[in-house]
Amino acid sequence: MTERTSAPVSVFARGMGKDFSRLHPMMQRRFGVGTAAGYGCVGTGVMHEVRRGPWWVRPFLLFGATRNIMFPEAGTDVPFRIDNFPYADDRGRETVTFVRTMQVRPGRRRRFDATMVYSAERGCVVDYLGTHQHLAVDLDLSVTESGGLRLVSGEQRFYEGPIAFRFPMLFSARAHLTEHYDEQRGRYVIDLEVRNRFVGVLFGYRGEFSCEFPDAAAMPPSLKPYREETRE
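The structure corresponding to this sequence follows.
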């Protein structure tokens, strides 16, 4: 478990500990976004492929879209933007946004929202999914041989008012994400797959993007969730 420090450290730096320094320098810059660092990260590019599972998972994805958690559209060469901005939530926790916006077709944009914190109690980064933070997911973070980031989701919990329960992993969807920096092209390359052991692939995308690093104060208020969950 990473120890707390007096000055805020980026969520990913805390979650990865010493391994954070093994990331490619441009990956360290991207995932070093934090209130102390004073900058955010805005990526723009294209998803070469956005995919979803069989037709009968569409109702599940449609429901998720009401809270900006996945969506039912699929396609190729989809314009894409990701907003990572740091802020302190109402509990004072160092938080970073992961808001992905995709132009899935003319006149239709979809968002996939997440906010991440480091939980000292759980000893990992916790990913709150959606606009209302109903889902909290533990993340296992590691470094690839090329200095990229590998992310695998773990235990998942649902919170709503007095209701709180854990999803059995047997019925949960597990996310597998890799991201690395391509030095030759100056682009970040990402690949995500959300899979259930019985259903198979529910949702996924792969693409590439370039990044700018604006002042953290430039964070649009619309990136924050509608409600904040205190339970980790």
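The domain at 14-223 is CATH 2.40.128 (Lipocalin).
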